[in-house]
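Technical note accompanying the year-one report. For the benefit of new consortium partners, we illustrate the data format agreed upon in the data management plan: each record pairs a sequence with a structure-token string. No post-processing was applied to the example shown here.
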Amino acid sequence: MTAVQSGPPDSPSPSLPEGRYGRQDRLHSPGADARADRRLKAAAIVVGAVAAVLLGWYGYSYVTASGVSAQVVAFKVVSDQAVEIHLEVHKGAGDTAVCTLRSEDADHNEVGRKDVRLSQHAKQVDTVVTVKTTALGATGELVSCETASGS
């Protein structure tokens, strides 16, 4: 398809209809695009910095809020009525932790549960806890471990 020009071949292209494509002086002013790019870059940097600070604050508060971590090192079925659980707890030296332990049978029915209060003034506590069971236990599990309220 061939474009048809109205007027002499060397004449400038006709002007755009008024109001249809925005302000003419803004479209053709030198540096308008560069200024818009700088504003967008500045806004993106500010938004990115705020997001990074918020993400860092959230991560730090999440990590420090949990003052107690614990794990079962090993467990041993002692008899039909007891399971020994070796528990390792990491906490603040002045904190008291309360950990809930349980034992389940082979069918995953809970056969024993015990809450253990650890108030030793140490950051790491290793202890062996005996959980009494109503039947032969097949597991020794940590249900939860948290800082005791009031400490």
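Partners are asked to follow this layout when depositing records. The longest strand covers residues 69-79.
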